[in-house]
Amino acid sequence: xxxxxxxxxxxxxxxxxxxxxxxxxxxxxxxxxxxxxxxxxxxxxxxxxxxxxxxxxxxxxxxxxxxxxxxxxxxxxxxxxxxxxxxxxxxxxxxxxxxxx
Length: 101
Prior knowledge:
By secondary structure, this protein is mainly alpha-helical.
């Protein structure tokens, strides 16, 4: 897909993810994650780690950005790695803890 085709799609990132826990956060997370994945694929961001993180932070609300800044990472996890941050936020949104696994 070239740039003109992408422009024809009127491609935009998904709306910001609301982090209000009492309003169906697990379901909203699943829908948002799929929309974000589709956007990254269509926008050809799938291979650029820095672009992925920028899009991710852009697409989540300020409360979520504050949340990801306080996540704890293991020594072998890159706190700026999009996949690592996405997994931590997924666990947060779905209510998983290390004890769950």
